[in-house]
Amino acid sequence: MMMMVRKSKGLGERHQKILEFIEEYQRKFKHPPSIREIGEDCSISSTSVVNYYLDQLEKSGHIERDRKISRGVRLTAPSSLGDMFRVPVLGVIQAGEPIPVPSNADFGSFTAEDSVEIAMSLMPAKEKGKELFALQVQGESMIDAMVNDGDIVILKPTQDARNGDMVAVWLSDRNETTLKFFFKEKDKFRLQPANPTMKPIYIDKRESLEIKGKVVMVIRKVERYN
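Above: the chain's sequence. Below: its structure in token form.
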């Protein structure tokens, strides 16, 4: 599952894919792609159709074109996001099954389909360079915290949490996982949802509770456009 953090509002899916390809190609090869290369990557067989999309992107101000030269396509706002890095998506955060988070993950073993690409400049400074993992959210218990069904949460592995931290928790005695705000109380733990229709979960301190990670970033689900 591959998602880009950068997303331009109001663009169709094909327009967005072309922009992302141009940006990635430019970053890799240090020059713009050709019309044919854009078509091949974006599964467009006709160069005239590629030109149609490029014309629309030019009119909307996303690119500039010089038709007198080959590879005359330029993003009008080159990415200010900086270097990108990949975070492995290790599973789904939901009740009923444990989170597959290895204690010493070999992040290099994951493929692009198992990862999400993030701009280094968007990460909190204290988290840069650290091992991170991602989980896809399933459910609506954290919607008031702007975490919706289908979103991706980026977490740093930790076994400790402070009151108010949003964490992924494994309740091994119940064989359940959940994403909640964490609070320590006198003789129990409180796992607080961010949804007024749902009640908090109270865990006796004698029960097994394992914190798997603390949320450091949320990536919104990519909306589809017709």
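Residues 13-75 form a domain with the Arc Repressor Mutant, subunit A fold (CATH 1.10.10.10).
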